[in-house]
# Entry
Amino acid sequence: MESFYVEPENIKNGFGEVVGEEFFHLAHVSRKRKGELIYLFDGTGKIYTARIVDISRDKAKCEIISEDFMKGELEEDLTIAQAILKSSERFEFALEKLTELGVKRIIPLVTERVVSAKSPKDVSRNKIERWKKIILSACKQSNRALIPELCEPVDLKNLIFTAKAYDKKLILHEADNFKRILLCDYIEGAENSKSILIVVGPEGGFTDEEVKLAVESGFEVVSLGERRLRSETASIIGVGVFVQFLISKKIRK
Ligand code: SAM
# Structure
């Protein structure tokens, strides 16, 4: 069954109303008909199974049959700070995959070697709106109950200073000039962590000063092995392995 996003305020008295771009998709792209079953999600954790009872010119009225809360969502707060990539296709690909995998928060990151933005202010509103659409589309495709929060772009220094609250803070780094731990070994120690921040560098990687600053602020340098992975590969693998570990931990409980 297909999923459609509905603003929380458009779900009331046992009915949900699909409007706007979501309505256009429902009526004119997916060509849904009266009587069909669909999923509605409000992005705050609720997923409803609903039956379309009326399709008018600009909205679809759906009767709610059942609801789930936080279905398939991690209990832990997994956040990824992904360096903004020179290739917008690759960065958008990463946004889509990280959303499918189940992150709660995505922080577009500006570092020394980020080419397309010298400071967070260089990231246009249009770009951020486009990224939000990609995240919403990935939520629909993967049946997410939650829409990951897309944070305002931030530079690495500010991220490091504001990251104190996370239980676990990892900076993924491919070079061996810092004491580092393989992700699979690191993860064993993450058994009881509630909030995890994973930081991934741009095509040019992190400078030594950036890694040093992170380490001095309590980040662990984590390796994904000897190969030099593309940034988006590293974040997808890093998040993917952590998600598998957190899911298996939950199942073992
Ligand atoms: N600057 C590096 C170079 O030119 O050799 C390449 C950086 S890599 C393309 C981009 C980012 O992916 C890195 O900053 C790091 O966060 C992550 N990454 C890539 N390979 C990795 C590995 N084997 N272990 C940990 N992180 C890795």
Q: What stands out?
A: The chain is about 35% helix and 30% strand. The mean pLDDT is 95. The helical segments are 20-29, 88-101, 125-142, 156-162, 183-188, 208-216, 231-252.
